[in-house]
Design a protein that fits this description.
With 314 residues, the protein is α/β, with parallel strands linked by helices. The protein folds into 2 domains: 19-117 and 149-193, Nitrogenase molybdenum iron protein domain (Rossmann fold, 3-Layer(aba) Sandwich); 202-310, Rossmann fold (3-Layer(aba) Sandwich). It contains 11 helices and 8 strands. It has helices at residues 2-16, 44-54, 77-85, 97-106, 114-117, 157-171, 176-200, 217-223, 241-254, 268-277, 296-310; strands at 37-41, 58-62, 88-91, 111-113, 208-211, 226-229, 258-261, 280-283. It starts with a helix and ends with a helix. The chain binds zinc ion (ZN). Zinc ion is lined by residues 71, 149, 213, 215, 233, 286, 288.
Length: 314
């Protein structure tokens, strides 16, 4: 009994020290230093949406460090406690096991799980070249596993944007009009981007693209392309000789001009394969993290340009 009471006291002490003015703020339980709503996103595209929808009223942090590969993120006890203290947690269940565990453990009051909003597809349904003989340590390619990468299809983003706006409004009702307006503006940008992809990929000499990271199933599904994946996500995992031979056959049969790789994991396999086949290697970014001035839209436009070159689109 003593220890329970002591723990409660320790938990209360920092709150008692806060300035009284905080009691009147929009989000009384805010973990941010100011009176903004503290949003904790699990990785970049979700963070980007929360920032755009929340605007000045929110402070958004990400559990995945900038520029880091989010698939195998691990959380420190301090990060788990940030999940507990956030006013709103935005994540994608089934994508990052450590985040799923932290959410289950802390049971935050306000959560947006993108998997509740998006009708996620399995790899087989996406026109993805599946290769069940290869074991992927990151849960990507197990038979029938859901593909997490919905954000690479811009037409899927508005449903998620609206869910974030609705939950922010539940946390901070005074900001509801702002959140709705920001969501509408952001959704217009996603709709524009979707139209640019539709137009830009409508007429191409090839519709098959080869990529090291099989992240582009939703993109392929939306724009009637065919993704051929070389290996799983683990930068240290070498694809089997059998898989490499199969990809080489597809490259020759379909006249593939480019092997795509991503910046957050080693391009070694993709570069070696491209060199062996005498074709190009180029970046196709799964938008799982950003560096420098890049953001979701700038990377998506870079990806479209890269696909148009590789597929000889007119
Ligand atoms: Zn991925």
């Amino acid at each position: 009994m003593f220890s329970t009471g002591r723990r409660a006291l320790l938990r209360l002490a920092p709150l008692a020290a806060l300035p009284v003015v905080l009691a009147g703020c929009a989000a009384g339980s805010s973990a941010a230093d100011d009176d903004t709503v503290a949003v904790l996103a699990s990785f970049y595209p979700l963070q980007f949406v929360a920032e755009q929808v929340g605007g000045d009223r929110v402070t958004v942090d990400s559990l995945t460090p900038p520029g880091a590969e989010p698939h195998d993120v691990e959380l420190s006890p301090a990060q788990v406690s940030r999940v507990d203290r956030a006013d709103l947690v935005v994540y994608l269940s089934g994508f990052q096991a450590a985040v799923d565990d932290a959410v289950a453990q802390t049971a935050p009051e306000h959560v947006v799980d993108a998997a509740d909003v998006e009708d996620l597809l399995t790899l087989e349904q996406e026109g993805t070249e599946s290769h069940a003989d290869e074991v992927d340590e990151h849960g990507h390619e197990e038979g029938g596993a859901l593909d997490p990468h919905f954000w690479l299809d811009p037409s899927r983003m508005p449903a998620f944007v609206d869910a974030v706006a609705a939950e922010l409004s539940a946390v901070d009702p005074e900001g509801a009009d702002d959140y709705a307006a920001n969501a509408e503006a952001l959704n217009a940008r996603f709709e524009d981007l979707d139209q640019r992809y539709q137009d830009g990929l409508a007429t191409c000499e090839s519709r098959t693209f080869v990529t090291s990271h099989e992240a582009f199933g939703y993109l392929a599904h939306r724009y009637d392309l065919h993704q051929v994946g070389i290996s799983g996500l683990d930068p240290d995992a070498e694809p089997s000789p059998k898989r490499l031979a199969a990809v080489e056959d597809i490259v020759r049969e379909e006249g593939v001009t480019t092997i795509f790789f991503e910046q957050l994991v080693s391009p070694k396999v993709a570069r070696t394969l491209a060199a062996d086949l005498g074709i190009d290697a180029a970046v196709l970014d799964p938008i799982e993290g950003v560096t420098g001035d890049a953001d979701y839209f700038s990377i998506a436009d870079d990806n479209l340009a890269a696909l148009r070159v590789a597929l000889s689109c007119s």
